[in-house]
Give the backbone structure.
Amino acid sequence: MQIDKVHGSENHFFLLDQTQLQTKLSDQELINFTTKITDPKTGLLQGADGVLVVDEPTHQDALAQMRVINADGSEASMCGNGLRTVSRYLAKKFQVDQFKVQTLNADLKVSKAADFAPNVPAFSVEISPVSFAAESLPFHNPEHQQLVNETWPELLPELKFTAVAVPNPHLISFVSADELASSDLGTLGKRLNQPNPYFPDGVNVSFAQILGQNELFVRTFERGVGFTNACGTGMSATSLAFALTHPDKGQFDQEITVYNPGGMVKTNVHKNDTNYDIDLIGNATVTHHLEISEADLHAAKLNDVKITQTDEETSYLQFVDQLPKINDISVKM
Ligand SMILES: N[C@H](CCC[C@H](N)C(=O)O)C(=O)O
């Protein structure tokens, strides 16, 4: 049984296709496997940020289904960087370039995009549904049932926040370069992802620096993981907040370049009559193939795994090297 190690903007995952198994892993086995293999100490290849689980769809217009298990074993409704790598996997498996992938809350349109650089394949994925309603995240705020560029003194009094579900929950603030690099993001991220009166299910927290016209740098502390090199749904949600709260700088229906500690992606925010959706375009890189017996997979035994490295990480790092140097925020490998 082969599983792949993949990344989108150095947001790393192991990708497991349940349809390749005689017997699928149970939910508990998926959690056990995920918490073990993603841990830098107990896992493989310096661990990862989660596991992407591919399975047959239950909706007829979808080619397959994707589930997202965070490194701590919690399940998320979506993963933008992960969906790009799953789309590449399915495009190869079914020899198609445009299709839908069933996720927890929606069947999302995905399509092959032009390579970002030589040997750096890219995919475009739909990020939706979008909701600003407090109960969609959920969040509890004494004054607001929705939060678009509002202060929230109990969190960080000098910042303004936007809260949006895409559909996983995101809390976003546009900040200075110094604030982005400060310890505030980690402190707030930890605080809102342990029992707290504001976000009962936790929340992905992003600080964004506006670099110019349709240009951002986004750093995210992820629910269920901690700091990642990039958060696809976080960069997408931030792009939507950008267009809504800084319309002079961030435009709907224009490509927004979003830099992050792991590289760069593009987003495109669309406003339709009732709602919004976002296109997230970026790399889908396969760094390793792992050969593991089905029995070891079920038992989360990782001491007899054959690992083959691809040539793609070298190409991806060459792509990153030619990007403008914006922040020296360390990349978590
Ligand atoms: N930690 C997220 C799931 C992974 C999202 C992120 N890796 C992405 O690329 O969107 C959550 O619990 O909502």
The longest strand covers residues 107-117.
